[in-house]
Structure prediction request, 326 residues.
Amino acid sequence: MLPTHRPRRLRQSAPVRRLMRESHIVPSQLVLPLFVREGIAEAQPIGSMPGQSQHTIDSLRRTAAEAAEAGVGGVMLFGIPEVRDAVGSAADDPEGILNVATTAVQEEVGDALVVQTDLCLDEFTDHGHCGVLTPSGAVDNDATNERYAAMGLAQARAGSQLLGLSGMMDGQVQVVREALDAEGFHDTIILAYSAKYAGAFYGPFREAVDSQLKGDRRTYQMDPPNGREGVREALLDVEEGADIVMVKPGLPYLDVLAEVKQAVDVPVWAYQVSGEYAMVEAAAANGWIDRRATIMDSLTAFARAGADAVLTYWATEAAAWLREEL
Ligand code: PBG
Prediction:
């Protein structure tokens, strides 16, 4: 008996495989997360994320310019202030590090890529939570949303074109959208980190932003076993006015990404987070995997699952590889 069906026929050579490819990723779909730290004279390497740094405004500008040169679609900025307090005052201070850096980066590369900012209080509070606390120490949802509205306005005024709402407060998209619209920022784009799961994959990021958090974020970020709830969060955010929804972390949650993609009619993004980055870098440094091939496999997986764009610390490097392969 000869096989009737021979799927191997479509894998027989590199040109045939290239023509049969179902998913593609291009540099403009990659977004580079970048850290800027107040009060440092030189960029500081982040130990848990080899190849990544906390930047000065100058090194941030240069790194953003390299990303633009490589054809990357955007940069997502995170700020690390010198002084923190209970309500994260530096977050909506026009002179706060993230807002100052946003204006600088916008000036440097604003014509070439989309300058984006993380909208969350965790880098700015002295307790490290993503919001403000009640007297008993719980994260106060609605009071936090008021802070997010002020932070969103400060970021829009600083020149951010796209706000990444990563705090997981209920109703945050609606509150920030209304605040932006009331001030005439109709064109400021809202990316909702809709299905953002609590868990272990953000470990290296905590070092990257010098996180003050003790405890965890499990009363606001999602419980990892819940996939359908991720779809529910995405649908709520679309209803509240989100322009883009996101699933995060990346590879471990591609099932959720695929479900969300079916359920919504806005772009769906993924965040390949610090833990995913660190695992590949560590294995590659030990010679246990082929670094470039592994990174490209992982980016392909996002495209296959339906991601319209991916936040990845490898954005600039991967963009250069993708151009080579054209
Ligand atoms: C919150 C925020 C976090 C990350 C992005 N935005 C930290 C957290 O939720 O604990 C993590 C990103 C990463 O791990 O790469 N401002």
Q: What stands out?
A: The longest strand covers residues 30-37.
